[in-house]
Amino acid sequence: MMSSFLFRAMDARAGIFLAILGAAIILVPASNLLVPENSPFHVPTYAVTLMGKYLTYALLALAVDLVWGYCGILSLGHAAFFALGGYAMGMYLMRQIGTRGVYGDPILPDFMVFLNWQDLPWYWSGFDMFWFAAVMILLVPGALAFIFGWFAFRSRVTGVYLSIITQALTYALLLAFFRNDMGFGGNNGLTDFKDILGFDIQADTTRAGLFAASGLALVVCFLICRAVTRSKLGKVLVAVRDAESRTRFLGYRVEHYKLFVWTLSAMMAGIAGALYVPQVGIINPGEFAPANSIEVVIWVAVGGRGTLVGAVLGAVLVNFAKTWFTAALPDIWLFALGGLFVVVTLFLPKGIVGTISGGWTALRQRKISSDYEKGSDEPPSTPPQSPSAPANIIHCEPVARFPGTTKPQPAE
């Protein structure tokens, strides 16, 4: 079963992507920990942390591409699932501080002591154990997505209306988490983390380990997404995206397929948020901002919707450009970044990976046709169907003639 799962998840493009990512997972920590600082091949710790943050963004973009690129659900609220996973990890990290906090309380975090809280809220119980926090990282975003999707998809809310509702959801959570009486730190959020699993969170080895963990999580989630999209389930998802009414007419329970992929995507976003928090050192309600969800959609569009690899590439390239522009052009970096998005939209409507893949397919088909015209025995074949192409789920059968009828003859 595992071999068939990996077979469905692999092809040439996926193999190249995984090879590059695997090399980065090994070489970047090694260059940081083993190479001397005066060497040109040394990767400083701040760069390891920055690249680790890029990998968490890539995982979030992958989650959005799964629902938008293959099922047609344009989510403008995935930042909510990302932030919920981050808060679950932040609660675990806060419980690990213990008496090392400013107020030295062994149970209550500093912000609760400051606000005169007397007891730890019930929903903070269990977060002193990593396994419990890991379960909550998956369960909380997944449960919220399941409940939201259950009502939205059964009500057949689609298109821009669903996008607006997802944006309203994340904005409502933003307002709720800003309140001090929610017990999540209010406007300041959760910060001042000390260690994770007993390791100093500021140590070089911990930073390298978090980078490697982010890369491995991206590999696993990428393989899961590839297996899903290349299976029969994935073909139904594409059919739902391209012709939802026709797919429902054929007897498929469309809301069940949508609910499954929506919940899976939310859990992936929660994992991304959980890996993001210990690397940046803070989680606050600002992560719920609707603008963050819109930015993730832009990453996917730049890289190539419905390609998976494109979503990862778009997230890394856009965030790298954002980092470079803020340093090189601090006064006009927003205009430069906006211009980049406009150029990509006008000249690369299918995204970077989609445009390259389409051009390569056209060149290969042209070469095959040229060879055939020169006398090759092999006829030209139709270009392979792209992952984002609609699935052909309609099969026409010949209609039986009534008894006594004859086959119509061609006109003379």
Write up what this structure looks like.
The protein is mostly helical and about 400 residues long. It has one domain. The chain is about 65% helix and about 0% strand. It is built from 15 helices and 4 strands. The strands form 2 sheets. A two-stranded antiparallel ribbon has the order 1-4. It has a two-stranded antiparallel ribbon with strand order 2-3. Strand 2 and strand 3 form a beta hairpin. The longest helix has 27 residues. The C terminus is likely disordered.
Average pLDDT works out at 87
Could you tell me the number of beta strands?
4
Helix content: 55-70%
Uncertain segments = 383-412
Report the order of strands and helices.
HHHHHHHEEEHHHHEHHHH
Please identify the structural class as seen in this structure. Answer: mainly alpha
- Strand order across the largest sheet: 1-4
Number of domains: 1
* DSSP summary: helix tally: 15
Task: Draw up the topology in text.
Blueprint: H1 2-9, H2 12-33, H3 45-68, H4 78-95, H5 110-114, H6 130-154, H7 159-177, E1 190-191, E2 195-196, E3 199-200, H8 204-229, H9 232-242, H10 244-249, H11 254-280, E4 282-283, H12 290-303, H13 309-328, H14 333-347, H15 351-373
Antiparallel strand pairs: 1-4, 2-3
Helix pairs in contact: 1-8, 2-8, 3-8, 3-11, 3-12, 3-13, 4-6, 4-11, 6-11, 8-11, 12-13, 12-15, 13-14, 13-15
Feature tags:
412 residues, mainly alpha, globular, two-stranded antiparallel ribbon
Can you summarize this structure?
This protein has helices at residues 2-9, 12-33, 45-68, 78-95, 110-114, 130-154, 159-177, 204-229, 232-242, 244-249, 254-280, 290-303, 309-328, 333-347, 351-373; strands at 190-191, 195-196, 199-200, 282-283.
